[in-house]
Amino acid sequence: MRNPATMAAYEDFRTGLTADKVDDLRNWVSGVLRDTSLTPDQRRATLAAGATKVLPHLPYSDAAVEALADGTVCMLGEAPLPFWPRYTAPDYARLLSHGSDYLRLKPAGDLHEALASLLSLYQYSATVTLEPVWLGNLDTLLEPYFDSVPEAEARRAIKSFWAVVSRLFPSSFVHANIGPGESRVGRLLLELDQTTGEPINTSFKYDPAVTPEAFALEAARCAMASAKPYFHNHALSTQDWGPDYAIASCYNLMPVGGGIHTLVRLNLGKVAQRASSPEQMLNETIPAAVAWLCEVIAARSAFLGGESGFFTHSFLVKEGFLRPEAFTAYAGMFGLAEAVNTLMGGARYGKDEQANQFAEAIVAKVAACVAEIPVPYCDATGGRATLHAQVGIDSDAAYTPAARIPTGEEPDMYTHLAVVSPHDRWLTGGVSNIFEFEETAADNPRAVLDIVHGAFSLGNRNLALGPSTGGELIRVTGYLMRRSDLAQRQSGEAVRGDGALFGSAFFVNQPQHLHRRVRTV
């Protein structure tokens, strides 16, 4: 018997926009048009997103639709019919070396032409945010052009480029990568992150065997000043993806020249509510829930890859900036803490060894089930979806993002890392934990770097490190926002940066995340 509480949502999935809902849609559009807390661009994007959601969803099974309707499975705001991928990582090196017929760009001859070419292609990124989620491995892309102009001019040009990117694409899901090798461009980007306060996500691909220590220490100083870059375990991700991979959006891994068809996520907290014991969850409930999850992923990937026309008509594909064989899809998961705490009879994730072992068993089981189910057009990962620890959204008030320990219950640093790091071997699509440090850590970057080394030795894939107070940039869950933008948004004013739109609602619904445990070194 279908749960009456989910009947309306169930019918929405089956029927899309029906006549009796037209008035509701008109009222919603009218409300968006009159919302003075949105900028014109934000109104346009909101209306565009709303327009894509009026069609019925693909023909999923009754069980999958019920899981979607009650939130056990969630499509994270994607349109019923996907018309382009959720995330893409264009081959920008090809752009700089070959140019683009569609964009009427020649191969870049100097730094100015390289920067102009990148900005041009960014405008045409095919992603769910309507903006680029990946800016490229900027140090390796731009370093060959650094000497094409005088050094002072190169520095001014890259600084202006960094500012323009932030102004053109204020979604907070824009992400650049640097490392593992040292370069002048890499050092300049770390310098800009410490001085300009631009809320552009950056990841530092770090490998102690390759990265010069002085460069790594500068990245640690930068993180303590600006809450970025992520410290990313380059050796581990190279094993999973090869050396040419991208870290995009919040912390989403994919091949360069490829992308992610769709991100459908599983609420493990709700999955646990369907089980009466840990054993039942592992043996029965998780396999059933993953089957619903992968059914939705497979249907959406099949439509995008086979029916949407994106891969046959986009210039990004025709000119080789994207390759269909370099795509996969994400099976996201979150609410691990609530799943464990629901079924362990008082034992708590992050505190009790029995609970921690159960958490690891859950992630391993989800990964095994995902690996058993074929998904079309996922050639980059052997025809299977990729498991991803999803960062969460503002409406997830009762559930902890990804595989994290709930804010307010964090154990000491070593215990925390020892609990969460074993999961990362299965979370090849991306995972992160946030650690905030008290002010003196800024004066001791070597101690911060030692923590990174310890985490990597435990198998950790990705660390978000930052200051506990005083910094202008705040890491919300996976994205960044400006502290001043948050205050402006909370006062009802329109804010250019989209991060403040998401972050203000997130901190209203989940205020505990403003009070993460502060670490010392």
Characterise the protein shown here.
This protein has 521 residues and is α/β, with parallel strands linked by helices. The protein has 3 domains: 17-54; 87-248, no CATH class; 261-519, Anaerobic Ribonucleotide-triphosphate Reductase Large Chain, CATH 3.20.70. The protein has 21 helices and 16 strands. It has helices spanning 7-15, 22-33, 40-51, 62-69, 92-98, 111-122, 138-142, 151-168, 184-195, 213-226, 234-241, 268-273, 278-306, 310-313, 315-318, 336-343, 353-372, 413-420, 445-457, 483-490, 498-509; strands at residues 73-74, 87-89, 136-137, 175-178, 201-206, 230-233, 245-248, 252-255, 258-267, 327-334, 386-389, 433-437, 462-467, 473-475, 480-482, 518-519. The strands form 4 sheets. The protein has a 7-stranded mixed sheet. Strands 1, 2, 9, 10 and 11 form a 5-stranded mixed sheet that branches. The model has no long low-confidence stretch (mean pLDDT 90).
